[in-house]
Design goal:
The protein has helices spanning about 15-35, 60-70, 75-85, 90-125; strands at about 45, 85. With about 130 residues, it is mainly alpha-helical. It has three domains: about 10-40, no CATH class; about 40-90, no CATH class; about 90-128. The longest helix has about 35 residues, at about 90-125. Helices cover about 60% and strands about 5% of the residues. It is built from four helices and two strands. The mean pLDDT is about 90.
Length: about 130
């Protein structure tokens, strides 16, 4: 018995716009929620310098100090920005767990989608 040709449902322009904006909001929420909850990043490490009151003490040359001054900074106000470094350390165990979860998700996705892919191919090209 042959299946009837599949005709997808029509969606209005408003529905398409709403769906697109809704997905955009979900993506932004997923990306920014960890930042707002302070869950992202390993933190910052302060670098010790000889003298925070001069450009030379902060390790800045004449060109760098001129650029800082163009931005309206003085050695005292720029010191927290110059001496603060991101901590890029990570846990190999957490990296492995994340990799396993992501790979497992895609394997599960492909396993559940196999039937739908076969149905779409059979509809378009017929049974073997």
């Amino acid at each position: 018995m042959e299946k009837p040709h599949y005709e997808p449902p029509k969606q209005s322009a408003f529905g398409q716009l709403f769906d697109s904006l809704f997905l955009l909001v979900l993506v932004f929420a997923a990306l920014f929620t960890p930042l707002y909850l302070k869950l992202a990043g390993g933190g910052k490490v302060d670098v010790t310098v000889a003298d925070k009151s001069t450009w030379a003490g902060l390790g800045q040359n004449a060109v760098q100090s001129a650029q800082w001054e163009k931005l309206g900074f003085h050695p005292d106000t720029a010191a927290p920005l110059i001496t603060s470094r991101f901590d890029y350390s990570f846990s190999p165990l957490e990296l492995a767990i994340t990799a396993i979860v992501v790979i497992g998700y895609f394997m599960l996705l492909f396993a559940f989608s196999k039937r739908e892919y076969i149905e779409v191919i059979e509809e378009r090209f017929g049974k073997k």
